[in-house]
């Protein structure tokens, strides 16, 4: 039995005005108040971060951004730095989500700098990795994951690797209602952990690896029970308080 604490992270994507954020958090807080066996996070839009931090202060809920620039400041129009996030007490950041990669040109090369920049600023990091449907069909899943994990972790010193969270999200399962089978998910989650072990064996025991991609109340228990699954990154279902609470309740570890 692993001692890793499960993490249930909601990725709200581009959903949530300040008013909606405050309301959803107010509904969530009493329902997670006794779920200390789970770490809780929500990744909210930039404009709702301050309101989310204020609403969640003193609770079990951590607030994450959905992206970040690797630099401290500079001529990077439209970007936000780690220091800007920590200044308003944001606790973490989601990096390399497949929508950032496929729609906005996020590269492994940039993530190689973003991951250590976030860690150095004191942010918790969820690094997202995952193969497309074509890559899976062509037998390229492991090659893709190897590239994403090795490059994303390259500049993180071995002694800090264990602090990371890596979310395995098969791109074909995100927002589609299609879910990886337990076997597909376990194979990929274990492979991601093995890639961390190639860098440092102790870190591989500590690093938390999440499953993401159409996780819902009716499939969560099976996925969360997988030996290498340390939680979930949840998109659509995280916008519905009843659904995200049902997923938290499915964490029995
Ligand atoms: P989904 O999204 O749960 O709606 O599939 C997951 C994600 O994009 O992180």
Q: TL;DR?
A:
The protein has eleven helices and eight strands.
Number of helices: 11
Percent strand equals 15-25%
Q: Helix content range of the residues, please?
A: 40-55%
| Overall average residue pLDDT | 97
Which class do the helix and strand fractions yield?
alpha/beta
| Separation, N- and C-terminal Cα atoms | 9 Å
Shape: globular
Rg, alpha carbons: 17 Å
Biggest beta sheet summary: 8 strands, parallel, barrel
Order of the strands making up the biggest sheet: 1-2-3-4-5-6-7-8
Name the CATH superfamily assignment.
Aldolase class I
Question: What's the domain count?
Answer: 1
Low-pLDDT regions: none
The CATH topology label is TIM Barrel
Set down the secondary structure blueprint.
Blueprint: E1 7-11, H1 18-32, E2 39-43, H2 46-56, E3 61-65, H3 82-87, E4 92-95, H4 98-104, H5 108-120, E5 124-129, H6 133-137, H7 141-153, E6 165-168, H8 182-199, H9 201-206, E7 208-212, H10 217-224, E8 231-234, H11 241-249
The structure holds 2-phosphoglycolic acid.
Question: What does this 3D model show about the protein?
Answer:
Helix 1 (18-32) links the parallel strand 1 and strand 2. The longest helix is centred in the last third of the chain and has 18 residues, at 182-199. The chain is of the alpha/beta class. Helix 1 packs parallel to helix 2 (46-56), helix 5 (108-120) packs across helix 7 (141-153) and helix 7 (141-153) runs parallel beside helix 8. The chain is built from eleven helices and eight strands. It has one domain (7-252): Aldolase class I (TIM Barrel, Alpha-Beta Barrel). Strands 1-2-3-4-5-6-7-8 form an eight-stranded parallel β-barrel, surrounded by six helices. 2-phosphoglycolic acid binds next to strand 8. The site of 2-phosphoglycolic acid has 13 residues, from strand 8.
